[in-house]
User: Which sequence fits this backbone?
């Protein structure tokens, strides 16, 4: 019996390089994508994945090299050129129109008309069809700005599916999704793959790669360093190829927490009804994990604990002292710090420098005799940047940093005030393996210092690897709190879907 020849590639990339003043982002990349194939593109932040994806999608022009699409020369000048040829890209950073509804965002660029007028019924039906594929359960007429980050990501994916593309480039599509939504997306990809749609799949979640990838391409420092004909490659090998070294243990060891209760939450309910009757305690040196599917109320809960949202009832105490509701200044004053889930919109000012971002919430510590001096800001920022391992000159705009370094800027600006309670909402979303290990070490150090830490994550492996105890939310209610020794992925998911 003879093996059938492999189908001709729909996309070929030959010798693609991209240089910017003072740096080379890509060097001589070759790549082939065949019909109905999922290629995983791996690498640390800054390895060149986004640059290569942008070139294929027409958003970036290469310095050298050629491409073909379906056997013909292909050199898109704009993303519109790529879309008209059947190539779409779903960006990690959402590009939605916040004041339009969910259905309208999905339909943008593909407005269904009847007799020259927009057909609202057709638009709703088409939007529901695509959103169902990715597990979206929200309202079609809801403005996108009211959705969670995960909900917005689902809309972004559904919008791309409306293109009827032959090749979809997915840049960290599940970074904001929980296990249930991720499973729905992977099933959608399998269905489209069976119909001949090809995918370039960029992700830092190696477990997903094993489930969905037909081939794996690894980039490091702008070069292709490895290619595998299967997604089932040992994670340790992929990590070594991505970072150029062995990451022996992703999750550090944690000492048992102390007896002292730092944070006490008693029977709190959200004024908007997004969570009900939540009670928990976090001790000094404890990492308390919060898990649950998208829409369970995790982010709303921790924002309320940080006094950013009003409560209907209940009480929050720090070291036994009641914390006022909806008063973030008071919360900061008593030592509560929240690292938000959306670092670009809520965590940093992208156009400002590293040092200005770090200094902004710490002006009281920098002020001398009523004045803030540039030299004082610089000294403070340099010390914080060194402590948290931020790469780059402190005078650089935060927008120029990788995702991992941007997250370290967020950590440094809030942790430099030495808070007692640290809440991390999706602390490693969209961050590569090397940067994740670094942030986990920071969390371990904070626990050793006796901080009370809450970690909210859609990545079950992360919650299980970090937390001493895990609370599972479902539909805004506490379904149970488990010790780390009794917590498993199956058990957490069973509670989360009750």
Assistant:
């Amino acid at each position: 019996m003879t093996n059938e020849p492999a189908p001709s590639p729909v996309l070929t990339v030959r010798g693609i390089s991209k240089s910017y003043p003072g740096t080379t982002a890509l060097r001589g990349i070759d790549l082939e994508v065949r019909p109905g194939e999922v290629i995983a593109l791996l690498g640390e932040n800054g390895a060149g994945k986004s640059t290569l994806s942008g070139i294929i999608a027409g958003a970036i022009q290469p310095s050298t090299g050629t491409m073909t699409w379906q056997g013909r020369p292909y050199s898109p000048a704009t993303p519109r050129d790529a879309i008209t040829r059947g190539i779409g890209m779903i960006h990690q950073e959402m590009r939605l129109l916040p004041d339009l509804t969910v259905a309208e965002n999905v339909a943008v660029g593909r407005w269904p008309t009847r007799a020259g007028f927009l057909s609202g019924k057709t638009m709703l039906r088409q939007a529901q069809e695509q959103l169902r594929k990715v597990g979206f359960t929200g309202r079609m007429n809801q403005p996108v700005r009211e959705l969670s980050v995960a909900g917005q990501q689902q809309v972004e994916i559904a919008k791309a599916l409306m293109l009827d593309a032959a090749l979809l480039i997915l840049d960290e599509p599940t970074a904001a999704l929980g296990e249930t939504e991720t499973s729905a997306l992977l099933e959608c990809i399998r269905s489209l793959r069976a119909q001949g749609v090809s995918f370039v799949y960029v992700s830092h979640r190696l477990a997903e790669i094993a489930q969905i990838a037909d081939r794996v391409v690894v980039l490091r420092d702008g070069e292709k360093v490895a290619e595998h004909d299967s997604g089932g490659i040992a994670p340790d090998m992929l990590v070594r190829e991505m970072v150029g070294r062995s990451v022996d243990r992703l999750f550090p060891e944690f000492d048992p927490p102390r007896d002292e209760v730092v944070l006490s939450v008693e029977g709190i309910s959200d004024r908007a009804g997004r969570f009900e009757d939540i009670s928990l305690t976090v001790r000094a040196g404890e990492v308390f994990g919060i898990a649950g599917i998208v829409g369970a109320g995790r982010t709303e809960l921790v924002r309320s604990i940080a006094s950013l949202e009003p409560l209907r009832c209940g009480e929050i105490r720090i070291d036994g002292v009641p914390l006022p509701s909806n008063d973030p200044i008071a919360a900061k004053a008593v030592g509560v710090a929240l690292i938000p889930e959306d670092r670009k919109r809520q965590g940093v000012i992208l156009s400002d420098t590293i040092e200005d971002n770090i200094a902004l919430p710490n002006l009281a510590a920098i002020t001398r005799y009523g004045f803030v001096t540039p030299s004082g800001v610089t000294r403070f920022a340099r010390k914080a940047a060194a402590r948290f391992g931020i790469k780059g000159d402190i005078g650089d705009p935060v927008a120029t940093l990788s995702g991992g370094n941007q997250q370290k800027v967020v950590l440094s600006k809030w942790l430099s005030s030495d808070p007692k309670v640290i809440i991390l909402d999706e602390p490693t979303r969209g961050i590569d393996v090397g940067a994740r290990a670094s942030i986990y070490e920071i969390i371990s150090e904070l626990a050793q210092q006796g901080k009370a830490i809450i970690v909210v994550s859609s990545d079950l492996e992360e919650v299980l690897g970090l937390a001493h105890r895990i609370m599972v939310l479902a539909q805004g209610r506490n379904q149970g709190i488990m010790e780390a020794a009794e917590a498993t992925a199956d058990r957490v998911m069973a509670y989360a879907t009750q």
In short: The chain has a mean pLDDT of 87. Residues 179-194 form the longest helix (16 residues). The domain at 261-496 is CATH 3.40.50.300 (Rossmann fold). The first strand starts at residue 11 and ends at 20.
